[in-house]
Amino acid sequence: MAPCMCFSFMKPVMIILLISIFATCCITSSFFAIILFLVFIIIPIVFRYSPSLQRGMIFLNYVRIPAVVNYSHPENYGIKGANNFYIKTFDNITLGVWHILPGNLLKKYDEDKSSYERLLSNGEPIVIYMHGNSGTRANEHRVQLYHVLQKINCHVIAVDYRSYADSTDVEVSESGVVSDAMEVFKWTHERANGSPIFGWGHSLGTGISAHAYSLLEKEGLYPNGLILEAPFTKMSDEIREYPLTKIHRMLPWFEFFIIEPVVENNIIFDTETNLMNTKMPILILHAKDDVVIPYKLGEKLYTHLLKTRQNAKTEIVLYDQHYKYGHKYICKDEELGNRTWKFIQDSLENSSQ
Fold it and tell me: Domain Serine aminopeptidase S33 spans what residues (predicted)?
């Protein structure tokens, strides 16, 4: 009798247990179904029909690291011989800029801020630094690069485009940031009095600098050279390679929802086309362990430029993975100063021939 009573008692318990398991499976399945629906349907739709979201995700101008920066005091960030100032553009945009003196001028002029602008005509090479998306001119890896350039006796002009840092906060666009880069070059050129001017773009800054400097050449203003650190061929190629789009690439509607709207929103940054037939010497630097912009895009750009710039100097340096430079730490290369100085000297020698 006892075994029968026990069996009778267990029967409803098992039924309840099975119902609970089934319910849990249904809830779990529903949860994953909702997640999949959001990731593969809702997010692509929202992205396609939201130009502001597209701009925000590409430019990341709202990301401020460090969050609080005293731009008036670059020395707070370990930079000697630096002056904070502002450039007013033709369309009434104010751009925040740091001017960092060459190492050979530090001893005499470090504290003499009033002489900084005049010293741009002293003869030392001038490097205009155009950073990538997110952050400001005060980011640590950017400051490390300023030190490298300062040690090889170059002026550094580091600019924050419109909507970044303490520059005028307006809607960001490719045409806007490209215009800013051109304005900074023209401002520098007017004061350089023949001192050589080079551009240095990193990441998104490679697309900005390539577009801006190609337009400058068309206006008859010729930069002495351009250094592209971690460049891409065009924005659409970079989006296809970006790690966060990996799960969407398998979808048949990827191009329609992700790529096409960005192009329609005029965020193109077609560096391949922009640099075709340009005359300025170009140096490409890319780390093989860069997961943000794969080095194969840098190689592809290099190959393209060799074919389309037959009489112009084009070089590439690829860094092996064991260096662990990734996307933004090529500045740690102990030979970077020497590489840069050699490129500058070779470019100037070629231009004088």
Answer: 127-246
